[in-house]
Amino acid sequence: MNLKVMNGLLTPKSVAIIGASSTEGKIGHTVVKNLIESKYEGGVYPVNPKADEILGLTCYHSVSEIPGEVDAAILTVPAKFVLGSIKECGEKGVKGIIIITSGFSEVGEKELEKELVETANSYGMRILGPNIVGVLSNSDNFNGSFAPFLPLNGSGSLVSQSGALLIGIDAATYLRGVGFDKLISIGNMSDVSFADTIEWLDQDEKTKCISLYIEGFKQGRKVIEVSQKAHKPIIGLKSGISAHGAAAAASHTGSLAGAAKIYEAAFKQAGIIWADDLNNLFDRTLALSLQPPMKGENLLIITNGGGVGVLATDAAERDGIPLKFAPEDVQVELKKHMPAFGSAKNPVDITGMAGTEWYVDSVRYAIAHPWVDGVVVLYCETAVSNPLEIAQGIKAAVDEAGVDKPIIVSYVGGEKSENAMKWLVENGVPAYGAPDTAINAMAALRDYARMRELMDVNDETHHEVDREKALKIIASAREDGRDSLTEIEAKQVFATYGLPVTKNALAKTEEEAVKLAEEIGFPVVMKIVSPDILHKSDAGGVKVNIKNSDEARAAFKTILENAKAYKADADIHGIVIQEMAPWGTEVILGSVNDPTFGPTMMFGLGGIFVEVLKDVTFRVAPVSQGQAMRMLGEIRGAPILAGVRGEAPRDREMLADTITRYATMILDLSDEISESDANPVLVYEEGKGIKVVDARIILKKK
Ligand code: ADP
Ligand code: MG
């Protein structure tokens, strides 16, 4: 990122408005008006060949006529004039082009849009847009957009792929009391995209939290990379997660890999906090932009009402910060600041009789106590208390404690409470109208700290592999005109990357089958090998626990008959004889080649867990051992691997190691593999390893 150029684009010291207009209602007019009304102090240069003056400002007939430097040009001219304007700007030495005009890739004009970028970049300029609202910055008094006014001032900044939503959010900031410093509309992301804006906002001193409204990343891996390096919280609201080509997927993994799951995985790896919806984006942005991360697990709730206390307790458990009872010394001290019928356990109930003093005393003590990692204060408006005075007291108590721990407040009440909450927010304390919202905001601060603590688990894992060998196997299948590998071939590729697969041998005749079975050693498993039969059991193509030669002969015949009955013209390569793996916990590993993030891994428990409960989790490859261990821990069925009801724990180390190898494989062969799975993989007791008993690889169409 060229900082000078990006600064010129997003915080320009002077702007030209190309397509400025004297006609009210036109975008070229609104932008000039907005720059004046926002009290922008930089140079404002309207450009229009037909006007000499617009809104009291000198209008230039071309960019070249403008005296002095121009940092950014805001383009509002019709699409057909955009390219010409960019060239003029390039000659003038402009740094950034903000293209409000639409009519490019969003209506299929992809080539034209590409040309804009190539031209701008050839002059060293960057483009924001096209098809955007513009850029707004409170700290620069800069409304370089056609949104009506600057947002309520705040310390977060928002990047939005939707222009209309950005305008809506802009206006809504005043009603919701959640402000922003900068609003950046990125529209078609022809050049500057999420990755660039994250990188830039990370170094912007005025931005304390980066909020994203995402329809789809363009460079998914780049976003992960820059987010991992960011020094401030990033929160993302991703839309369009309901259907994602799942129907067209060829493999099991493909059908389970919806956009929601994959974006969730990418967010985890990137350290981006998830927003459930627009309300949640506002609420969590407020907390993340005003409060420090919650660096431990101990949350203390102080309340004047049992009801809100219980609601908050429920929410805390749901959002992953379950309450614990406060230690003895904390309870003893807090007991001094409440009536006898209060409770100091957690939630700390200072009762409906509580006035300012009890609130202040308990907050001051609690937030300074080493056991406490974060405090949520709940208040129900009563006749014996003064909401604003309590707010001011809480703030003073926190300041006095001078600790780097988060505090969040919730008021349930009327107008007085509303005013008190407004005061709190203006003074840096997030306040919400419902206890569960307050808890969810605190959970965002906890999630942020957790993600930062876990960043080191992204360390890359290196595996020595024989890539050429794998490519040969794939090439020979392609020579056969196939776009999938047989189980035998897929296992050979897996083995190249160090995945523990069963021993296999291909038999073409009954005699061969018997011989190979004897070599491998009974009991064996026999399965059909045919590129036309992907799901072998469905075709009666799998026989397990074959104990002797007679059974092997019989199985050979039956499997062939079944296969022919299933699909008369199936191309049959033969029958695979494999060692019969002892029974273990069934899991599934798989991969997809996601259009946004590329090769992505899936892990889940096998059998009904994956079929019915879809209890799976994803990571964008590569996957480190640490991340793989986290994957094992985050599915609902995790206790099954950890060992439940006296069962020994499973070999999670080995399973995680296999995940890292699998991830290396799909990354290494990303030009070849479209989807794949190992289903099932059998996992044994700790120290006893795992075994891949079935393998499937679908190739990319070439
Ligand atoms: P498909 O998924 O194509 O129907 P699989 O190869 O997964 O075929 O076989 C079906 C089932 O048979 C597996 O889920 C597993 O329970 C069992 N199985 C297959 N191969 C082996 C093996 N080598 N050892 C033990 N069990 C096996
Ligand atoms: Mg299978």
Task: Report on the architecture of this protein.
- The protein has 702 residues and is an alpha/beta fold.
- The protein has 24 helices and 30 strands.
- It has a seven-stranded mixed beta sheet, with helices on both faces.
- It binds adenosine-5'-diphosphate and magnesium ion.
- The site of magnesium ion has 2 residues, from loops.
Low-confidence stretches: 244-250
List how many beta strands DSSP finds: 30
Largest sheet report: 7 strands, mixed
Number of discrete helical segments? 24
- Numbering strands along the chain, what is their spatial order in the largest sheet? 9-8-11-10-12-13-14
Terminal-residue CA separation: 35 Å
Portion of residues within helices = 25-40%
Radius of gyration: 31 Å
Topology:
Blueprint: H1 3-10, E1 14-18, H2 27-37, E2 43-47, E3 53-54, E4 57-58, E5 72-75, H3 79-92, E6 96-99, H4 110-122, E7 126-128, E8 134-137, E9 142-145, E10 153-160, H5 163-176, E11 180-185, H6 194-203, E12 209-214, H7 220-229, E13 234-238, H8 252-256, H9 259-270, E14 272-274, H10 278-290, E15 299-303, H11 306-318, H12 328-335, E16 348-349, H13 356-368, E17 374-380, H14 387-401, E18 407-412, H15 415-426, E19 431-432, H16 435-453, H17 467-479, E20 484-485, H18 487-496, E21 504-507, H19 510-520, E22 524-529, E23 542-546, H20 549-566, E24 574-579, E25 585-594, E26 598-605, H21 608-611, E27 616-620, H22 625-634, H23 638-642, H24 652-668, E28 673-683, E29 690-692, E30 696-699
Helix pairs in contact: 3-4, 6-7, 7-9, 10-16, 11-16, 13-14, 14-15, 17-18, 19-20, 22-24
The structure holds adenosine-5'-diphosphate and magnesium ion.
